[in-house]
Amino acid sequence: MSSVFSTKRITVAANGYTYTQWKVEGRIAGVRVRKFFPNREEAEGYRQLKEVEALNGGHELRASVTHLTADQLRQAEAAFRRLGEKPLLAAVDWYLDTYRDTLTKKTVKEAYPGFLDSIRDEVRQSTIDDYTSSLKAFGEFTDKRSLPEIRGDDVEAFLTKRGLKKKSWNNTRADLHAFFAWAEKAPRKWITSNPVAEVKTITLTRGLPEIISVRTARDLMSFVATYRGQGKEPKPAGFLVPYFSLALFAGIRPAINEGEIIRLGRLKNLAAVIDLKNRVIRITPEIAKTKDIRQVTIQPNLESWLRAYPGDKFPITPPSLFDEVSFVRKKFALGHDVLRHTFITMHVTKFRSMGDTALQSGNSEKMIKKHYLNIANPDDADAFWSIVPAN
């Protein structure tokens, strides 16, 4: 490459004296630049600076004493070019505040087992199973992306792809939010913000509860009182009576996969919880879905069913419960919580106390008033609480 600046030795005569100078001359962006120096070393240094400046479009270069290496200087210059007008120190401060070590390279698949271990002693196994299902699927979806690389758009795309209904959307979103909140907290600090916070929660509209009629309730209990199962080996007639009577006349949450009624059936000292002498069912935090203690009064008709089908002979959770209950539910077209909804509705209609119904059902007075009050008529409630075994 030809030089754009020249260094030339010249002789200058002034005031009767003759002496030597060195002239550096050239152009930068069309502007003539010329300067004189008493010796060649200074002239050459200036020429080199101006040539580099000319090659860089006229931007001035400054020679400074620095502890930076040549590579560090190049990185500093590159950083300034990328930052533009933004201050370098502010960028450095932000980086130091948000930088995380190599743990930030963890993927969801690598990180979520630790999250499950951290909550295993605090929640039920059914909750662990729900978290595992959500996080395992999300781990497959995000694949090798590290936690800091995951954004709210990724979470929303995952939820949308699964085609979830509104409640399932919210539940899965809550699972992911809890996981990322754990990842964000000390001592981990693997992320600086929770990406799930950007994802909407769907507002659920809840209409009138689905309940069964008194006739259906009577037919249901009559059927299970004589039902002996679908297997080749007949079971004792009425083996499902404890399950359905507790769900219908005590409002025990009936989910077969780790619901309240399943945990109730696993108790070794069932008589201490289902206290027929004092006519009360004590739902302890270990049993309750909400982990709050509540007591359910055993109404006379429920007492009749429980005495006719005692727990020592008719366990609440007999073998093949899932298949047998599913068969009966299908036969009577029973929704998931319809028996519990029926209990709450008939209880507040019969006894006219929203507070007492809320306490016994593990609900709130606001929910009782909004969804269950004045759904049934008093005559139906009287008939409902009169359903007893035929014998």
Q: In order across it, which strands form the biggest sheet?
A: 1-2-3
CATH secondary-structure class of the largest domain: Mainly Alpha
Do you know the CATH topology of the largest domain? hpI Integrase, Chain A
Radius of gyration: 40 Å
Helix fraction?
A: 40-55%
- Tally the beta strands: 6
The structural domain count equals: 4
Distance between the termini: 112 Å
**Overall morphology:** rod-shaped
- Spell the H/E element sequence: EEEHHHHHHHHHHHEEEHHHHHH
Q: Compute the average pLDDT.
A: 89
Largest sheet: 3 strands, antiparallel
Provide structural commentary.
Helix 4 runs antiparallel to helix 5, helix 14 packs across helix 17 and helix 15 (354-361) crosses helix 16. Strands 1-2-3 form a 3-stranded antiparallel sheet, covered by helices on one side. The chain has a 3-stranded antiparallel sheet with strand order 4-5-6. It is mainly alpha-helical. The model has no long low-confidence stretch (mean pLDDT 89). It folds into 4 domains: 1-63, Double Stranded RNA Binding Domain (2-Layer Sandwich); 70-98, no CATH class; 104-198, DNA polymerase, domain 1 (Orthogonal Bundle), CATH 1.10.150.130; 214-384, Intergrase catalytic core (hpI Integrase, Chain A, Orthogonal Bundle). It is 48% helix and 10% strand. The longest helix is centred in the middle third of the chain and has 19 residues, at 166-184. Strand 4 (274-275) and strand 5 form a beta hairpin. It is built from 17 helices and 6 strands.
How would you summarize this macromolecular structure in one to three sentences?
The chain is mainly α.
